[in-house]
Each structure stands twice: as C-alpha cells, then as structure tokens.
Amino acid sequence: MNDSILDLIGNTPLVKAQTLVDNPKVQLYFKLEGQNPGGSVKDRAAYNMIKSALDRGDITRETKLIEATSGNTGIALAMVARIFKLDIELVMPENSTIERVQTMRAYGAKVTLTDADGGIEGARDYAEEKMAGGDYFMINQFSNNDNWQAHYNTTGPEIWNDTKHKVTHFVSSMGTTGTIMGTSTFLKEKNKEIQIVGVQPTDNSRIPGIRKWPEAYLPKIFTPKKVDRIMEVSEDDAVAMTKKLATEEGIFAGMSSGGATAAAVRLCNELEEGIVVSIVCDRGDRYLSSNIFD
C-alpha cells in the first residue's frame, strides 16, 4: 500500500525490444516512463523540484508558482502541485495538443497559451516577465539542479541495477536535458566507459520534447562533456518510428520517444555488441489529436 500517488513515481519497467534490432549481439531495452502516474519521465523532476523547494523553504503553501512547458513537465508539475496544495500557472505555446492542455487543467492548474510562432522560447519569456513582477516563483526546470538530480537519484540507479550493471549505452532525447544530465552523472560514476548518447532534431525538424536550443536559451543545467555523442533525427524518422513502436513493439508513446528510438536502433546497427537502454519518455494518448497516428 502507498500513502500517496507520489509514491508511484519511478521504478518504471525496462522492456527488451522484440523486433527492431537484428544484431544478435546487441540488446535494446526501453525504459517505459509513461508508467509514471503523471504519464511521463517528467514526474521525477517535478516531484524533486517542488519537494526540494518546500524542504529548503524557497516556497511555502502560499507561493504562486509559474513555469513554461512544452507539455509533459507541465502535467507533472500540475499533479505534484495539487498534492502539495500549491497554486501553479503553466505557460505553453497555443499549438500544444489539446490533451496536454486539458490534462493540466484537470489537475487544477491555470494554463496560459502564448503565440505559437514564439514557440517554447516565447512561453519562457512570458514566465520570466511574470516572475520579474515579484508575484510568482518560477520552478525554472532549465536552470534547476533539482531537475537533473532527480535522475541521478532514481533513473540512473534503476537502469544500473535492472541491467545488472551491464548497460553499455544510454540514449535519451534532449529537451531540458535533465534526464540525460542526471543519468549520465550516475552511470559514469559507476563505469566511465558507458556511452551517453543525446538525441536532437535535424535542422528544420519539429519534434515535441526534443530541441536544438538557440544559444541564448540553452539550459543552464546542460554540461556538454556529460554527453559522449549527439545523434540527430528527422521529423519524418521520428514519426515513422513512433508508429513502429506501437505496431511492432506494442509501445504507445509520443514523438520524442520515436526520435530517441530511431537513434537507438541506428546505434544498435553500428555496434558489435552491447546493451543499449533508451528512454521512452511518455505515452501516446496525449498526442491523439495531432497527426502522428493518422
């Protein structure tokens, strides 16, 4: 029995790919983060960022929170904030899928939609302006060390233990970079030979949850030396692999997971041998109104 829904965050399954890898000496495992109660890997960071801020006294129950998000972090923050009885305003581009907006509102969060042309950068600018007015505390996932430390404390150890210390490569999409930073830090402490592979979109590709940031918006928690290799994926390849995950592996996930999987499969075809773990960061049901599954 659990005292709270928050007790269900983490300890997500690791599942071996059944059809996508032909190389008999390479095993590909998917870390199914959609199994978290809020439906994504962002539950880990949201819980750690809010709880740590409360524990330090940075915020109180009376503090009004604000955060810019492309979706999953906002859903996770809305869920965690509600458990801690905190008010939160979430800011996202107006072209975000309706499922994500409705889910945040279902948890009781205020959702503000910014101009689509401004993208997530425009949402970040809006949140910064509101915080500068003095009435809000911004979680600031892009600069918050509690983001990556959540993965140092949970995601990394889970992968290390579930592969019986045999993982050779870790693959993750790069957005706020919290997942790859924290997991890399832990795994490299255990075995510096483990290769950390970050996934970014090709130029002119739009893949929700994966970003190639302009220099001015590069997350401050990102440390380049913690990533051994960056692989780029196109929007078309990410969509195709998202569909293939569902039809061939029975894994219903979003487009950033398809992008990470496309990179992971390409990596597996290059290796002579190894155990590759790739993050499947969320579930596909929050993208049904998009054209991914048409």
From TrEMBL:
Identify the enzyme class: transferase
Per its UniProt record, the required cofactor names are: pyridoxal 5'-phosphate
Which Gene Ontology biological process is one annotated for this entry? cysteine biosynthetic process from serine
What the entry lists under Pfam families is as follows: PALP (PF00291)
Q: Which InterPro entries match?
A: Cys_synth, Cys_Synth/Cystath_Beta-Synth, CysM, P-phosphate_BS, TrpB-like_PALP, TrpB-like_PALP_sf
Keyword Amino-acid biosynthesis appears in the UniProt entry = yes
EC numbers for this chain: 2.5.1.47
Catalytic activity line of the entry: O-acetyl-L-serine + hydrogen sulfide = L-cysteine + acetate
The molecular function terms in GO held by this entry are: cysteine synthase activity
User: Binding of pyridoxal 5'-phosphate: at which residues?
Assistant: N72, G175, T176, T177, G178, T179, S256
Q: Which CDD domains does this one have? A: CBS_like (cd01561)
Boundaries of every Tryptophan synthase beta chain-like PALP domain copy: 6-282
Modified residues annotated as N6-(pyridoxal phosphate)lysine in this record: K42
Instruction: Enumerate the UniProt keywords alphabetically.
Output: Amino-acid biosynthesis, Cysteine biosynthesis, Pyridoxal phosphate, Transferase
Q: In which pathway does it act?
A: Amino-acid biosynthesis; L-cysteine biosynthesis; L-cysteine from L-serine: step 2/2
Question: Which family, according to UniProt?
Answer: Belongs to the cysteine synthase/cystathionine beta-synthase family.
Its name, as the record gives it, is Cysteine synthase
Tell me the gene name. Answer: cysM
